[in-house]
Structures are given as structure tokens and as C-alpha cells.
Amino acid sequence: MTQADTLTKPVAAQVSGPPFFMSFAHVSVPSRDLEMSKKFYIEVMGGRLRVNTPTFCAINVCGTEIGMGNVGCTFIQPETEYPHFAFYCGPKEIVQMKEWLTRCGIPSSNFWTRSCVETLMFFRDPSGNMIELFCTGGVPGADKMPKGPPRGHGTAVDIETLRYETFSVPGK
Asked: Do 142 and 93 sit in the same domain of this protein?
């Protein structure tokens, strides 16, 4: 019997459902180029570097730890929407981010909606990982935006156009 068996045996008889976790720790995504990934998540997304090693880094973006590694990675294809991760933002911020991405030479999707109230937008990091911005309401013209199903790919958004090789941060 292992130490883990000893620790879980008394608990196993009492378990009636999943535990309540304390909080979300992090998400880790593949990176083709860690230096470029760091530049993107710090200078484009406004994150703070938390961990920095030759094969892994972690950057905090609005309270979410995003880890990036360059060993043992699988990359998503240009036509792939899932997996992706999303950030909530306000109406001013979604417009500002779209303009900022354009200034950095990073393609982003058009704004789109599901129910003519919220506004969504996709873009990718330099390694092709999909990021979604989700604004719950308040963007003028949301009722006239392309309407998509629960997933936007293929109807409201052409995600295959979101790949890029390089970007530059203005003033850097």
C-alpha cells in the first residue's frame, strides 16, 4: 500500500461528490517562441511576468496566470476555435483593445454577437493560441453586428485570418 492509498482510504468511504476548490490556479499554453510570447502578454496584454525560465514563463493578466512552455507542445491549427480562453471587458476596453491590436500589427476578428446585446472578439497570441474578449453589453451597434451561434467560428468570424508571424509594439 502506498502513502497515497493510506491518505485516501479513510476519505474514500466518505466521499459523496467533488471537492470545492479554493481558486483557479493557471492555464498553460504552448509557445513557439518564449521571448515573443513574453513580449505579447506583457506589452500587448498588459501582464506582469511572474516566472521566467528557459523553457517556461508565467505572466499574470488581470488576475489570471497564463503559463507558456516550449517543450512537449501541441499547437492548434489555423481553423481551430477551441481551446481558447476569454477575458471579460467593458465596452470602451473592447474597442480600445481592437485599436491597440491594429496598432501592434496583430489581426483581430470583427466584433460579433450572439443575442444582439453582448459583443465578442477573437485574436491570437504569436503561437496561435486563441483569445476571446467578451463584453456583456454597452457597445453601440451590438444589435447590428454579425450574429453567431454559441461558437462564432464559421458564421460570424473567419478565424483562419487571425494568424500572424510578427508584431511590433508602438514606441518600443
From this structure: yes
Assess if residue 100 is contained within a domain.
yes
The pTM (predicted TM-score) of the whole model is: 0.84
Residues 133-145 have pLDDT tens digits of 999 999 999 999 9
Residue 38 has a CB neighbour count (10 Å cut-off) of 18
- CATH code of the domain covering residue 71: 3.10.180.10
Give the per-residue pLDDT at 55. 96
Q: Nearest CA to 68 among 33, 101, 93, 42?
A: 33
- φ, ψ of residue 125 to 5 degrees: the values are -80, 175
What domain range is 42 assigned to? 23-75
- Cell numbers at 76, concatenated: 492548434
Strand partners, 147: 113
Do the domain assignments include residue 111? Answer: yes
Q: Please write the tens of the pLDDT for every residue from 50-99.
A: 999 999 999 999 999 999 999 988 888 888 887 889 999 999 999 999 99
State the Cα–Cα distance between residues 117 and 105, nearest whole angstrom.
28
CB proximity list for 143: less than 8 A, separation 6 or greater: 113, 116, 117
Radius of gyration of the CA atoms of the chain, in A: 19
